[in-house]
Amino acid sequence: MEERRLVTMSRRSLLAMAGASAATTLLGQNAAYPEDEEAQPIVASPARPNHTSFPPLKNVDAGVLNVGYAEVGPHDGLAVVLLHGWPYDIYSYVDVAPLLAAKNYRVIVPYLRGYGTTRFLSSTAVRNGEQAAIAVDIIALLDALKIKKAIFAGYDWGARTVDILAAVWPERCKAIVAVSGYLITNLKAQQQPLPPQAELGWWYQYYFSTERGKRGYDQNRHAFNKLIWKLASPKWNFDDATYDRTAASFDNPDHVDIVISNYRWRLGLAPTEPKYQNVEDKLQAAPTISVPTITIGSDFDGAAADGAAYRKFFTGKYSHITLKGIGHNVPQEAPDIFAAAVDKASSA
After folding, report:
1. Nearest 5°: CA angle at 193, between 214 and 154?
2. CA distance readout (Å), 185 to 147, 267, 284
3. What global pTM score does this model have?
4. What is the separation of C-alpha 343 from the centre of its chain, rounded to a whole number of angstroms?
5. What is the number of structural domains in the chain?
6. Range list of β-strands (E), the chain
7. What would the mean pLDDT of 227-246 be, rounded to a whole number?
8. 250 in a domain, yes or no?
9. How would residue 64 be classed by pLDDT, with cut points 50, 70 and 90?
């Protein structure tokens, strides 16, 4: 099938996102992805939080985990699953979730393995943070909640997981929203060195590859992750209360093992767990994604913010948003824009 031409969300249709009325203006629309004019970067400033809590959290046994999650919106609404990254947690979506719930979506925001109230069911289970394991966790969560199909949206680890779900289980995905685009890890490509300035940006991965780094992260995770927040989103002037709400999730007893496993696995320093080998084999082939997709690039993505570098991996209906002034934690820094993108994706 011929690849569909790049479709981009227009500046006119997104301009209101930077203002306080964005949710009302844009979430009230549900037209097809606009194709009427060339997209331009959206200039925005990190938002101040409107909410500081979710309704009482829920838990459900799903696969190898008992998953802790927030749920808002009507139980019979179209399901939206919002996935966080590292070093973040469900509070990245504390302002996104009510915007979507107000549009009658059933919003599910789970803690990934190693975060918050999510726990392994067995004390002997491998504390494995590889990409396939996290994706399989989310499929198990869908099954436990009896959700056949959902919209998935995420950033960082969450965006990678969203991409994997769309590539391997497209029948479970109505549409996806992925910050930073195509993030499926290719282990062979990961062995290729980058220019020195680019390598500098991944200093923490090399730190985590050492036992000193593991001990350092364990002992200093609160300060370590706060530093990552500042480096990844230099224009986001978050306060201590905002950070501390999320930092509590790093006290999970499996957190350090999961984080270290994730980054060592990416560098080829930790093996693939045999139960996930079949999924990983598919992912190492760099599968394309045919599910309707909206990608979002931000200042964190540097030269790749325009999406051109990964456009070829998305073969279905597609749109891209470029944000100026927003860092890595897009849903928490720009919740109106993120929520509007999810709502727009639902029109596919």
Report:
1. 60
2. 27, 10, 7
3. 0.91
4. 16
5. 1
6. 42-43, 58-62, 65-72, 78-83, 105-110, 119-120, 150-154, 173-179, 293-297, 318-324
7. 98
8. yes
9. very high
